[in-house]
Structure to design on (965 residues):
């Protein structure tokens, strides 16, 4: 059965890639007649460098793959394995991959400018500003969500802490080997791999038993410190080495899923429409699949982040516009396949791994155990204890890297968003532009929320912000198709865009009126009240910005209709 | 057929290796461009009112700074719209 | 060996007069002397009753004189750079260079650099043919600027050199790991990097001048028996102290120009003092220059040469 699902996933993705993707490329974008790509036209040997689509694909995929495509689906199985799977398949091919593809293409047509710039040009300054704010909130919420997730994983498996610490040391040493000494990439990678295995072994030897609170503190300190280190010391080499985790995980996971024939009976195909999924820990609320599915499954199906990544360096390096199909649409489909593997692992092997506790385990440990079980059952030479440690370190590494880099990005964003203060309140502006202040604010707010909220309520907030960002991108792309491309095909973008916007807005409104009040049920619990207030305000602010942006969009849309 | 497959495999390995090379140097590359940008600004900034070494030194170095000028211009462009590049480089997702 | 002499001081205190009188007396003692004026006002020729230009002119058997033409030096300096730019840049970047260079003439820093290179030229090319070179300096502001240039520019160049090394090293690391990187085109060894080489040669030149000013020069500040010139002299002393350039003597010129009581200020008193009387009839010819008694200064100066 798992094999079947895996093959169906591959079939659907490949079919849509070759059929639907090509239609978009040839009829909507008309890439074959498009102007020369900016990488060639504006080639400067600095940022605009034509690059092979295979290399770009690898680079782009590695940039968008993280802990996101794993977390969402791992949570979504509460609805049963089928609904989540359908969203990962259909949402991806009609929304997510299209979103990534067209954002990349639009950026290419705009000389490599970011999708924020494109939105500003087509919809208005307000749309551009919303990008900045959404991304800033995303940074805080991702620290909150991942912070809790990692703390939970570390507390669940005491071996992970030292395995990760030694992995960082391994990265630093490999970094020295590659960057400071004359050893090349090959030797550096080899040293890195050997040290990684050593790190795993040492982690296994030195399990710790610390409370989740201790881990929160450690993570807080880690975020603030790690984001101040020079990039070539830890971040660059670790980023490089962690991509090996991704390759290994994808390969063994993919092979295991394909060769196993286990039935998917660890969880029912469909439990209930409103499973108890979202809410503060201990007070999960019934969450209707529609509209709340985008609050759970983000990156495997659709992610606003990807548009920014695509319109960053990828668009400046695309050799020809028609490569965008492979890089943009293709990479997202592969990510969808990764998410499919997550569901297969949990649905097929979750019971074998965790028995009755399957649904009561936290999302990531649920994935870790199920994934390990799937691999070890089908590839017996990889023992369970190793695979669980591997999977846990894999997810934790990606999450912790995100925590570190988000903090760095946050410093820039806080300053950008505080810009209007420069005239009105120079003292405040100076305060916010201080990099330590920005760093600590994001880390502190994030970890505080993580501790008192928990990922079951913070991941949906993060996901909602992410999906809102994606819907701004989709609407931008719709305007772009209408104004600059071929109005005949607008429907193919407009319908998914409208559907997405309605769904996400409804989901966030639902979140605001159903989930947030739960925090205020017992006014005596101050921590709970504060958390509710902060998250509620952030969500409210995002909703307001969302409506401001949509009014800008509608005004713009109407103007164009009159002009046409 | 085997020859074709071998050729394909070699190409795949080469691509894989290139992807890794780029991954291993991506952030260093970004940092290098910033250093070059700063270097150019330090020397040539005097011509636009920034503190800088005496202009004669700048003039003496100017003939050799073609690459740095290109980076300076590219970076000026980027500084207006950096969000995308930063997101990609920083591996947020 | 303090074979280079600078006379500094406020405008009007008698720099040209004393420097030419000193040079004359030194030459008549049998030493080969070059007296050079850096002052754009070009009074040296008047004092020696002859017309001077940028090339040494024999004024007496042992005395040559010249007046540095700053404008010419600026042009010469910019011309070199213009040629270098044309040679190195791609064609389409040279189109607008000419107008750019004419603006540079007035850019802050160009004038004092011109003085510096003029001094360097005299020191390297001409000085070996003489026993001593005596400089009549321009007004204090410009003098202090060119005297401080080697030290200040030296700092800039040192920092730029460090940054350049870091850039080159980073390029090499990236190319070593990723040979296909676009950075490869500009990845060169330290010794082949033109910018690094240029920074090095600038550094060498500045260091030589710094040594000239701080170790091989006899600097004398001239004051008149009034407060203004003394204040200026104090300022000069302070600035030079910060640069590590020691003053060698104080010349009190125009003693007796007024009947007012005047005493040398405390901060200058510890330096060797040399007094010159006011000449009521003025200094209008070379003969008049001879009447200024410079023996005490000359004696002290030559004595110091002997000891060094």
């Amino acid at each position: 059965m798992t094999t079947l699902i895996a093959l169906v996933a591959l079939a659907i993705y490949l079919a849509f890639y070759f059929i639907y993707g090509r239609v978009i490329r040839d009829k909507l974008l008309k890439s074959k007649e498009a102007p020369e790509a900016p990488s060639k036209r504006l080639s400067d040997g600095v940022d605009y460098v034509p690059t092979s689509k295979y290399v770009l694909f690898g680079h782009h995929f590695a940039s968008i793959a993280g802990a996101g495509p794993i977390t969402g689906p791992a949570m979504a199985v509460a609805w049963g394995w089928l609904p989540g799977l359908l969203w990962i398949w259909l949402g991806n091919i009609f929304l997510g991959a299209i979103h990534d593809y067209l954002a990349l293409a639009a950026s290419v047509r705009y000389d490599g400018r970011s999708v924020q710039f494109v939105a500003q040009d087509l919809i208005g300054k307000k749309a551009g500003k919303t990008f900045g704010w959404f991304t800033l909130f995303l940074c805080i919420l991702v620290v909150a969500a991942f912070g809790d997730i990692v703390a939970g994983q570390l507390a669940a498996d005491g071996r992970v802490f030292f395995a990760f610490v030694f992995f960082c040391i391994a990265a630093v040493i490999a970094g020295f080997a590659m960057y400071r000494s004359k050893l090349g990439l090959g030797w550096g990678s080899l040293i890195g791999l050997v040290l990684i295995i050593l790190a795993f072994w040492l982690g296994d030897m030195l399990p710790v038993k610390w409370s989740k609170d201790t881990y929160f503190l450690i993570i807080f300190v880690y975020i603030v410190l790690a984001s101040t280190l020079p990039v070539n010391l830890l971040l660059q080499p670790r980023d490089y080495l962690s991509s090996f985790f991704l390759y290994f995980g994808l390969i063994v996971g993919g092979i295991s899923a394909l060769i196993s024939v286990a039935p998917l009976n660890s969880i029912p195909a469909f439990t209930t429409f409103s499973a108890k999924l979202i809410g503060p820990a201990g007070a999960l609320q019934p969450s209707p699949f529609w509209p709340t599915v985008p609050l759970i499954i983000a990156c495997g199906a659709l992610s606003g982040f990807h548009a920014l990544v695509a319109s960053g360096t990828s668009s400046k390096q695309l050799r020809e516009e028609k490569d965008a199909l492979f890089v943009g649409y293709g990479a997202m489909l592969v990510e969808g396949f990764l998410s499919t593997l997550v569901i297969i692992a949990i649905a097929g092997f979750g019971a074998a791994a965790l028995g009755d506790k399957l649904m009561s385990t936290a999302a990531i440990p649920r994935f870790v155990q199920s994934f390990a079980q799937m691999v070890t059952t089908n590839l017996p030479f990889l023992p369970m204890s190793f695979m669980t440690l591997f999977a846990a370190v894999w997810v934790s590494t990606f999450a912790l890297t995100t925590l570190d880099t988000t903090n760095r990005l946050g410093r820039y964003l806080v300053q950008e968003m505080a810009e209007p203060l420069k005239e009105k309140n120079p003292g405040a502006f100076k305060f916010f532009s201080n990099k330590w202040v920005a760093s600590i604010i994001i880390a502190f707010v994030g970890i505080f929320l993580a501790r008192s909220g928990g990922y079951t309520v913070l991941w949906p907030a993060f996901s909602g912000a992410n999906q809102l960002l994606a819907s701004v991108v989709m609407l931008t792309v719709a305007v772009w198709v209408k104004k600059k491309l071929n109005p005949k095909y607008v429907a193919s973008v407009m319908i998914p865009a409208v559907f997405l916007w309605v769904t996400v807005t409804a989901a966030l409104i639902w979140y605001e009126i159903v989930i947030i009040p739960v925090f205020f049920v017992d006014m005596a619990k101050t921590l709970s009240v504060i958390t509710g207030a902060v998250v509620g305000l952030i969500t409210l602010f995002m909703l307001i910005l969302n409506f401001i942006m949509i009014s800008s969009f509608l005004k713009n849309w109407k103007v164009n209709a009159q002009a046409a | 057929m085997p020859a074709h497959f071998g050729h394909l495999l070699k190409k795949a390995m080469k691509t894989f290796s290139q992807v890794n090379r780029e991954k291993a140097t991506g952030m260093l590359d970004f940092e290098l461009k910033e250093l070059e940008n700063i270097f150019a600004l330090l020397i040539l900034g005097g011509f636009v009112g920034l503190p800088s070494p005496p202009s004669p030194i700048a003039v003496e170095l100017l003939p050799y700074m073609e690459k740095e000028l290109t980076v300076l211009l590219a970076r000026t462009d980027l500084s207006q719209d950096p969000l995308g590049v930063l997101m990609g480089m920083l591996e947020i997702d | 060996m303090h074979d280079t002499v600078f006379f500094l001081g406020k405008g009007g205190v008698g720099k040209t007069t004393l420097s030419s009188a000193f040079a004359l007396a030194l030459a008549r003692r049998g030493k080969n002397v070059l007296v050079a004026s850096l002052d754009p006002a070009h009074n040296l020729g008047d004092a020696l009753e002859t017309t001077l230009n940028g090339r040494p002119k024999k004024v007496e058997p042992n005395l040559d004189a010249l007046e540095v033409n700053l404008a010419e030096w600026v042009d010469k300096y910019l011309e070199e750079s213009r040629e270098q730019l044309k040679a190195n840049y791609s064609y389409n970047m040279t189109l607008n260079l000419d107008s750019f260079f004419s603006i540079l003439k007035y850019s802050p820093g160009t004038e004092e650099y011109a003085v510096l290179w003029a001094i360097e030229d005299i020191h390297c090319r001409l000085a070996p043919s003489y026993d001593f070179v005596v400089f009549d300096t321009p007004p204090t502001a410009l003098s202090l600027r060119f005297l401080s240039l080697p030290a200040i520019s030296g700092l800039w160049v040192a920092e730029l050199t460090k940054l350049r090394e870091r850039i080159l090293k980073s390029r090499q690391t990236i190319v070593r790991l990723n040979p296909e990187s676009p950075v490869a085109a500009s990845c060169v060894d330290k010794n082949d990097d033109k910018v690094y080489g240029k920074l090095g040669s600038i550094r060498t030149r500045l260091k030589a001048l710094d040594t000239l000013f701080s170790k091989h020069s006899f600097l004398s500040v001239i004051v008149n028996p009034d407060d203004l010139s003394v204040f200026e002299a104090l300022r000069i002393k302070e600035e030079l102290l910060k640069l590590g350039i020691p003053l060698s003597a104080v010349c009190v010129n125009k003693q007796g120009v007024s009947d007012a009581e005047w005493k040398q200020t405390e901060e200058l008193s510890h330096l060797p003092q040399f007094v010159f009387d006011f000449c009521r009839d003025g200094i209008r010819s070379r003969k008049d220059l001879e009447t200024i008694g410079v023996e005490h200064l000359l004696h002290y100066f030559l004595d110091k040469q002997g000891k060094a």
